[in-house]
Amino acid sequence: xxxxxxxxxxxxxxxxxxxxxxxxxxxxxxxxxxxxxxxxxxxxxxxxxxxxxxxxxxxxxxxxxxxxxxxxxxxxxxxxxxxxxxxxxxxxxxxxxxxxxxxxxxxxxxxxxxxxxxxxxxxxxxxxxxxxxxxxxxxxxxxxxxxxxxxxxxxxxxxxxxxxxxxxxxxxxxxxxxxxxxxxxxxxxxxxxxxxxxxxxxxxxxxxxxxxxxxxx
Length: 217
Hints:
Layout: E1 14-19, E2 26-29, H1 33-41, E3 45-47, E4 54-56, H2 63-79, E5 83-86, H3 100-116, H4 120-131, H5 136-153, H6 156-161, H7 163-194
Parallel strand pairs: 1-5
Antiparallel strand pairs: 1-2, 2-4, 3-4
Helix pairs in contact: 4-7, 5-7
């Protein structure tokens, strides 16, 4: 950038997911064709706007569903490399009181649930909370990605070095791969639950010998 000129930003690459205070609708503004595909697969509907089209969640969706879908869409977009701003009121992973202790209690409870799990269904549910689109690992990945962006854009000393930013982005990729591996394990666990039990031959009553085999010559 020369002569103090402002950089050119591609506005369509930036996506804002927010709740319109007038209509109470959750809307997604911005994004390119790839982002549109992700939004639509996440339950967002295309809606015509006066300036340009936008996307929104369906009318009448419960608040908890609004938050879950908005959070899942934001993580899917971030994982695909898009820049996303998610309205804090829509973040399903934000603790209600904003206290660190609440998040720690949740992790302890999740660990206890894993220890007490007695079925493949319970295991699959726990693994989904860890690695699903709105789970713990995608959230951790988002934090690492945002930290890397902050390093490259704001922290000049670190940006000049380049190595810390590279390490953060490599860590984000590792977290993403870990989430995929956990989801694969979850799917295997769920499949094991649905696998039919092989039929077995009932044992002969006590004291009764099996019928002799007849041989024909």
